[in-house]
Write a structure and sequence with these properties.
6-stranded antiparallel beta sheet; Alpha-Beta Plaits; alpha+beta; Calcium-transporting ATPase, cytoplasmic transduction domain A
Amino acid sequence: MSTTAIERVELPITGMTCASCANRIERKLNKLEGVTATVNYATEKARVEFDPGTVAPERLVEAVEAAGYQAALPSTEPASAGAAVEQDDTVVLRNRLILAAVLSVPALLMAMIPALQFDNFQWLSLNLVTPVVLWAAWPFHKAAWANLKHGAATMDTLISVGTLAAWLWSLYALFLGDAGMNDMRMAFDVIPNPGEGADQIYLETAGIVTTFLLAGRYFEAKAKRRAGAALTALLELGAKDVAILDADGSERSVPVEELTIGDRFVVRPGEKVASDGIVEQGTSAVDMSMLTGESVPVEVAPGSEIAGATVNAGGRLIVRATKVGADTALAQIARLVEDAQTGKAPVQRLADRISGVFVPVVIVLSLATLGFWLGTGESASFAFTAAVAVLIIACPCALGLATPTALMVGTGRGAQLGLLIKGPEVLESTRRVDTVVLDKTGTVTTGKMSLVEVTVADGVDRDKALRLVGALEHASEHPIARAIAAAAAAEGALPAVEGFTNRGGLGVEGVVDGHALIVGRPALLADWAMHLSPELDAARRAAEARGQPAIAAGWDGHATAVFVVADTVKDSSAEAVASLKALGLRPVLLTGDNETSARAVAAEVGIDEVIAEVLPADKADVIRGLQAEGRVLAMVGDGVNDAPALAQADLGLSIGTGTDVAIEASDLTLVSGDLRAAADAIRLSRATLRTIKQNLAWAFGYNVAAIPLAAIGLLNPVIASLAMVFSSISVVSNALRLRRFKAQRDAAGATAAPARSSAHHTAAIAQPGR
C-alpha cells in the first residue's frame, strides 16, 4: 500500500457528446488502482484524485484515450487558449448546420408540397440530402464509429444509426424498391403496372433530422458556454500588467506573472490592483464589487489589506504584494467555484446510473419495435419509421445536463454576488436546515469598538472632554482607546500629548493642552483622589449592566467624564435576521460575551434565543448539543475561532473575506461582510437545487413518455428529432434562468456594509480593564 500523498488533477476532456460518454470515461478511470474520478459532461472536465505512487498522471490520459476520447494534463497556457478552441468548435458546428439547413429544407418542401413535386424529384432530393448525411452529420458518425471500436454506444450511435438507416432505406427504395422501379419506368415513358405500391422514401427525414440535431448540438454548446460565462469572466478579471516600483523610485511595466511577493507596485486611479497586498502609501476608495458583490467602494489607507483585481476608484496607491498567482483571493475564489461546478450533487447519481445503460437499452427497444410491428403484419415502412423514431427521440443528454448546467449557472451567479458555494452536496443541506446559529462579534456586530455615549460632570464641556481624552487615547493601541480617538478625530484636529504613560491594565496618563489627564478604570482615578460624582457613577454602572465597557476620565484633580464604547450592531443585521426567518429558519445568537450584552444585541436585531458566555473552544460542543435535539443547523461565523463550529454544523457559512481556515471549514463563503448575504446564499442554493430537480423531472418524464409514443408509431422521426432537441435545450434554458437571481440586499437598494480586511475578522472582545 503506497503511503504517497493523494494528488488531485483536472483533465480537460474532448470528444464527449452526451452524458453516456462522461459516464463511460468515469468508469474507465475508476477502474485504475488508486484512482477516484468524477467526469462532468457540462464542464468537459474530469476531476481525478490519484495516488502518484500507484499510477502516473500520464496513465490517466491513456485511460481516457483508451475509451475513445482525448484528454491532456493541465496546461500552463492562459485559460483564453481553451476558450479559443471552444469557439472554433462552435464555428465548425455552425458551418455544418448552415449547409444542412440550406440543403435539407428544399428536400423537405418537395416531399410535403405536391405542387413542388416534378418528375423524378426524388433524385434531386438524393443529391441534396447526401452531403447532409455524409458530411454535415460526420461528427455523429465519427463518434459512433470510435465508440463502436471500443465496444460502446452513445447518443451519437443512436443519431448515426437513425440517419444512416433512413438514408440507406431511401437508396434501396430508389434503386431497388417499387418507388425506384416506377421512377425509372416513368423516366423511360414506361407506365407502371396498375396496383404497384411504392416504398416510402426517407431522404427528407434523414436531412431534416440531421439539421435539427446539429442545431440542438450548436445551441447546446452555446448555452453551456453561457452557463460557465460567470467563471470565465471571473478568471479574466485580473490585471494583465503591473507597474513595479524599483528601489530607485523608477517604474517599469511587466506582465503580472512576473510579480513576486514583496514587490512594490503602483496602482493609479481607474486601474486594477495587480495582486493581493498591503497599501504602503496613498489613500483611496476601492471598488470591491468583483470580490464581494457589493457596490459601495471601500476606503483604504496605509496598512489596509487590498485584493487583486479590485479597481482603484480614487487616488494613487503604492502596494506591497503579499500574495501572487494561485494564492490570491481571486484565484482562490475561482478555484472554489470550479470545484463546485466539477462535483456532482447526490440527486445526479440516479441520472448517471440510467445514462450509463441508456443507449444500449434504446437500441434494443428500437429493434424490438421493428420486430413487433413486422410480426403484427404492419408494413415494413411503418415498422421502420417507428424504429427510427425510437432511436432519435431518446435523449440521455438532458439527463446529463440537468445537474451540471444548473450548478454552473448557480455557482457562477453566486461568485458574481460574493457567494461561494463550496460543492454540490451543499445544496441538499440548505433544503434541510431549520435553525441558523449566528456568531455575534464580527457577524451580527461590526467587530469594532465605537464610542456610543459620553457623560460629563456639571460644568464640563462635552466637546472639550472628547478632544482632550481623544488626544491622549490616540497614543494608545488599546481597542477602547482607538474607538475614542477615532470619534474625537472625526470632530476635529487633536492637540499634541506630552508625557504619555501607559499604566498597564489600568489606563493611561499624560498632559494635553496644559491639563494633566488620567483616563482608565475608576480605581486609577481614585489613586489620584478623583472620585466619580453620582451622575458619572450611574452612567458607568448602567453601561456595565448592558455589557458595555466604560472608562472614566479626569483632569486638574477632578473626575470629569465617563466614556462608553460598544461593538455596534451592523446596519444590515436586523434585516438579515428577518430574511432568515422568512426562509423558515430559527435564528440563535451564539457569543462569548456576557448574557446582558448578548440579550441587548439579540433584542436589537430580532433574535429570541441566545446562548452566551461560550468560550471559542466550546462553540462546536454547543452545535453538537443543538443537533442532539434534532435540529438541522447552519452556522454563520468568521475567523479561526469559529472554524470548529462551522465544520460541525450541517451547513457552515463563513462571513467576510475570511481566514483560510474559516473558508476551508465552511460550506458557503460569504465574501461580503454583510449578514444579509447569508440569506441570499441559502436562497440561491435552494433555487439551484430546485432547478436541478425540475431539470431531472423533465428529463426523466420526457424519456418515459416520448419513447413509448415513438414505439407505437405516433411520432415520426422528424417530430422525434425536434422533441429531442427541445428536451436538451429546455433543460439548459431552465438552468440559465438562475443568471437572473437577485440578492435581496441589492433589490432592497440598501447600502452594503464595507468589506473588512482579513486581519480584522476575529475581533477582540474589549474588556474594561486596561
